[in-house]
C-alpha cells in the first residue's frame, strides 16, 4: 500500500480516545499499533496474557468502521504487562461507499501485488483497518558517535502508565543498526505546520549518515542525553532502547521514555489516517480537513 492511501490530518491528542476498543469495551486507542508488514502483525499492550483481545473494533469516522479478529503469536514481557505480537485473521469493514467496496479496495489490492510485500486481499483489509485509528507522525533523531540521521515515522506506541515505548522501522532503514548500537533515540513531536519538513526528511531513511550542514533548521540539546533537538519540535521524548526484535520486514524496538517535554493539550499535530475515513470527524462531530503539504 502506498503512502497515498494514508492522508495527513491535524488533530489534538484528546481526539484519539475511543477510536479502538476490544470486544469487552476496553479502550485500546493508545495501546495498538501496526508493527510489521511481513508478516503483517499488530502490536498490543496487555496487562497479562489472559486479557489479549480476540477482536478489536476501530471507528474510522463515525460511519466507516472495522472489526478485526486475530490471535496472539508471541509476547515480550515489559514493565506493565506484555507486548503482544497479534496476527489479524479476519477483517470486516462497514460503512464504505459502493465505489470504495467494489472499485477502490480491489484497486489497492492489485497495486499491492506489485509492491515488495505482495499483500493478500485479506491483508489489504487488515492494514486498511489498522489505519482507521489515527497514527501520529513524529520525527526521530538518531545519534551515535559520528553518526546522525533524522527521519519521520508513524509506527509507534507510548504506554502512558508505565512509560514503555515501542516503535518499528523497516530492516532496510540504515538507521536501524545504529539505533541498536546507540540504545537511545530522540522522538520529536510536531505541530501540523511542520508536516512538510517531516516529509522532506523522509528521504533520509536510506541514508548512511546525515550532516548538520545539510539541514535548514537549527538545534538545541535535549535534556537528558544532549541529543540534537530540532527547532521545530513542540515537545519530545528521550527513549532508551531495552529490547529489539528482527522480523522479516521490520525491526521492533521496545524501550522506556526517560524524559518527556509534554505537548500542550490544545496543540494540533499531524496524524495519518486511511483515506476511506474521510470526511474524518473529531469527537464533537466536526469535520477535520486534510493537511496541505
Describe the structure.
The protein has helices spanning 98-112, 121-130, 175-182, 195-200; strands at residues 6-11, 20-22, 32-37, 40-46, 55-59, 65-78, 81-94, 135-136, 138-144, 147-153, 156-158, 164-170, 184-189, 219-221, 228-230, 235-246, 250-261, 269-274. The chain is built from four helices and 18 strands. It has two domains: 15-133, Roll (Pnp Oxidase, Chain A), CATH 2.30.110; 136-269, Electron Transport, Fmn-binding Protein, Chain A (Pnp Oxidase, Chain A), CATH 2.30.110. The protein has 293 residues and is mainly beta. The relative contact order is 0.20. The mean pLDDT is 91. The strands form four sheets. The chain has a seven-stranded antiparallel sheet with strand order 10-9-13-16-17-12-11, covered by helices on one side. Strands 2-5-6-7-4-3 form a six-stranded antiparallel sheet. The protein is 13% helix and 42% strand. The chain is globular, with a radius of gyration of 18 Å.
